[in-house]
Write a structure and sequence with these properties.
Bound molecules: adenosine-5'-triphosphate, magnesium ion
CATH superfamily: Acetylglutamate kinase-like
Number of domains: 1
CATH architecture: 3-Layer(aba) Sandwich
Strand order of the largest sheet: 3-4-2-1-7-9-10-8
Strand content: 15-25%
Largest sheet: 8 strands, mixed
Radius of gyration: 17 Å
Helix content: 40-55%
Low-confidence stretches: none
Mean pLDDT: 93
Number of helices: 10
Shape: globular
CATH class: Alpha Beta
């Protein structure tokens, strides 16, 4: 088994965030085909998009605020499981063998070495482990656990070669301009002012924070368009691609 690659399929690309419950099966299908043909050991994390974020927002749930409404928590989780099941179904139809796990199963509980060997065992068996941003019971109540935070936890655990973030934009833009920054360092990220966006978890701002930490752990973080399948494929394989690479 080669080194591990974590692919975060952004909710912004696998759904239309402007339309509640709008799943893009054609996009997931194309990304899954590139994952299948990459020859890399890929773990997939997907975001909430117009499933998780829509329902979470209706109930005032986010990664910062806890919800008093158990029904809101439950409905958000059900929406995420619905999206996850669509993603897994599309992946199965696209030459992959997805094996769904919730962050709770391995990352939040259990020891790191148990979790790492469990995930490596899945990869060795030919599965593509798939997990997603979730609603979890943490100190003080239920909060959204962002898919981007899960990428960070998995990166700590597995020291992957790369974390590839597939997005609805071509990479990270310069502040105040629609120009892609090809390379970033954790130091430069700390100086950037990026809006948190209006989703439940902190949008691009959280993603860059995660990328800076991932780079500090010795992995690369790549930001690439999820609509450009060739560029996504190159990023997965560690080739030069059109987008943004974050390295320490
Ligand atoms: N400097 C920037 N460079 C690139 N995108 C930016 C920047 N600042 C804000 N954005 C916005 O960040 C969005 C991506 O973050 P967002 O959290 O919405 O997507 P996601 O993580 O793919 O979705 P989800 O949270 O559902 O998984 C882009 O659609 C873009 O509009
Ligand atoms: Mg996001």
């Amino acid at each position: 088994m080669g080194r591990i690659v974590i692919a975060k399929l952004g909710g912004s690309v696998i759904t239309d965030k402007s339309k509640p419950f709008s799943y893009r099966s054609d996009v997931v299908s194309a990304l899954a085909e590139e994952i299948a043909s990459s020859g890399e050991s890929v773990i997939v994390v997907h975001g909430g998009g117009s499933y998780g974020h829509t329902v979470a927002k209706q109930h005032g749930l986010s990664s910062d605020t806890t919800s008093q409404s158990m029904s809101g928590v439950s409905q958000t989780r059900t929406a995420m499981l619905e999206l996850n099941s669509l993603v897994c179904k599309t992946m199965s139809e696209s030459k992959l063998n997805p094996y769904q796990f919730t962050p709770f199963d391995s990352v939040v509980h259990g020891t790191s070495s148990e979790s790492a060997s469990w995930l490596k065992g899945l990869l060795k068996a030919g599965a593509t482990p798939v997990t997603f941003g979730d609603v979890t019971l943490q100190k003080g109540g239920f909060r959204i656990l962002s898919g981007d935070t899960i990428v960070l936890e998995l990166a700590k655990l597995l020291k992957p070669e790369r974390c590839v973030f597939a997005l609805d934009v071509d990479g990270v833009y310069e502040e105040n301009a629609r120009v892609i920054v090809p390379e970033l360092t954790p130091g430069r990220i700390r100086k950037m002012k990026v809006p948190r966006g209006d989703d439940a978890t902190g949008g691009m701002s959280l993603k860059l924070e995660v990328a800076a930490k991932v780079a500090a752990y010795g992995s690369q973080a790549c930001f690439v368009s999820g609509y450009r399948r060739n560029e996504f494929s190159k990023a997965l394989r560690g080739m030069d691609f059109y987008g943004t690479t974050v390295r320490a």
